[in-house]
Design goal:
Jelly Rolls, disordered N terminus, 454 residues, 12 helices, alpha+beta, IPNS-like_sf
Length: 454
């Protein structure tokens, strides 16, 4: 009677879920379906009812099948009281998802039609400011991410800085102080390189499942690895995305370590990012009133990693996020996005779309730049909303040495920017110490910077 009561409670009176499958129940940690006890919980709690993530037992034969067979004849232990009945074992479901080594894309290929509970985001995090009262187009015009044309910096009068370059520096200063986000065009990276980089990441994610599984790992010492949610076991909710991580610098990455599907283009794209990063750090230095080489001399551009995100279509995009609200832990991020959209930045108490702009790259400042500039430049919160139609691909180039450099160099507010009226607001920290703390908390929507405040 307890099981029947629970089933009706969870399915609005019906012992079946909306897909016509029998209700799954978990009593004292034991999961069952149609009278079969499943020793390995490849089972997920959906938004409205409990259901298996796969439509048949053969979808993921490598996960828990043997254990399930062994436990077919076992009886589930009885709960000591109604309160002991567990309807959601988060850790078990996280492990079950992780052990598929197939990521979010694997869930869709297995037939998922609702968002598993481990992906459900808090309502406050799913806020969509485009639905606020008023004219959305007018709001977007008032809150538009700055676009900076870098082509002018190629001009040089042979001494000092030209007026066009000074204008670019001023635009970057304003954007860095008020937004922490801007888009750049005229950056010198050929359009065909941008297009092929996106295509290469699609090939990897949509290609052979065995190749992807071979790269799947949570071992942070691996310079090339594929996974879903780096903070899967730390954060409150998983995000609807899969990621290929490639550490390209400070040490050269052997080409054979990269997936064949994107090997050549990843190397070419990374070389372009190195040159663009050097330019951006020069412009940021000048925007601070410092010599062009100041941030480079601080080795802010020494490390470089590619985070290649794949956001599959989501059956219930209003219930989850592609990426939770967060700031970046690095010095600077350069983002290439396709034309699907979904990136938003938090500005003046509202979420603002960062629309795809043909040929543009999105620049956002990281926590370490906010720290060394003593809050003069901002590390803005941003997120990615899930989409029901259109698989989104983005490639972020993160300028940080974590975790592959042993440097003990400490970073604190730049002394040239301090005064009696503007004392240091942060303690000194190494890149590794900052990143380790950041990663230990996951993408919670709370800035790690507050931990380093004086």
């Amino acid at each position: 009677s307890l099981l029947l009561c629970l089933s009706r409670l969870l399915t609005n009176g019906s012992p079946f879920n909306r897909h016509g499958r029998h209700l799954l129940l978990c009593v004292s940690g034991t999961l069952c379906r149609d009278g079969v006890v499943w020793g390995h919980p490849l089972i997920f709690l959906g938004a409205n009812c409990i259901h298996r993530a796969v439509s048949d037992k053969k979808s993921f034969p490598q996960v828990g099948q043997a254990q399930a067979e062994r436990r077919r004849e076992e009886k589930p232990p009885m709960a000591s009281s109604p309160c002991a009945a567990q309807v959601f074992d988060r850790l078990a479901e996280l492990k079950a998802f992780d052990e598929t080594r197939a990521g979010v894309k694997g869930l869709l290929e297995a037939g998922v039609t609702t968002v598993p509970r481990i992906f459900l985001s808090p309502v406050r995090d799913r806020a969509d400011d485009s639905r606020r009262p008023g004219d959305p187009a007018a709001q977007q015009r008032r809150h538009q991410v700055p676009v900076v044309d870098l082509s002018a910096i190629a001009q040089d009068d042979g001494g000092g800085r030209t007026a066009p370059r000074r204008e670019v520096v001023e635009q970057i200063r304003r954007a860095s102080e008020s937004w922490g986000f801007f888009q750049v065009v005229g950056h010198g990276v050929p359009a065909q390189v941008l297009d092929e980089m996106i295509a290469g990441i699609r090939r990897f994610n949509e290609g052979d499942a065995g190749e992807k599984a071979a790269f799947y790992s949570r071992d942070t010492s691996r310079k090339v690895r594929y996974s879903s949610n780096f903070d899967l076991y730390q954060t409150r909710t998983a995000n609807w995305r899969d990621t290929l991580f490639c550490c390209m610098a400070p040490d050269p990455l052997p080409p054979e370590d990269l997936p064949a599907a994107c090997r050549e283009i990843a190397l070419e794209y990374s070389a372009h990012m190195a040159r663009l990063g050097e330019t951006l750090f020069e412009l940021l230095s000048e925007a601070l009133g410092l010599p062009p080489s100041h941030l480079k001399d601080m080795e802010c551009d020494k490390g470089r990693s590619l985070l290649c995100h794949y956001y599959p279509e989501c059956p219930e995009p209003d219930l989850t996020l592609g990426t939770s609200r967060h700031t970046d832990s690095d010095f600077l991020s350069v983002l290439l996005q396709d034309d699907v959209g979904g990136l938003q930045v938090f500005h003046q108490d509202r979420w603002v779309d960062v629309p795809p702009l043909a040929g543009a790259l999105v620049i956002n400042l990281g926590d370490l730049v906010q720290l060394i500039t003593n809050d003069r430049f901002k590390s803005a919160e941003h997120k990615v909303v899930a989409k029901k139609q259109g698989t989104r691909v983005s490639v972020g180039c993160f300028f940080t040495t974590y975790p592959f450099a042993s440097s003990t160099r400490l970073y604190g507010p730049i002394k040239e920017l301090l005064s009696d009226d503007n004392p240091a607001r942060y303690m000194e920290t190494s890149v590794n110490d900052y990143a380790r703390y950041y990663k230990s908390t996951g993408l919670t929507g709370e800035s790690a910077l507050s931990h380093f405040k004086l």
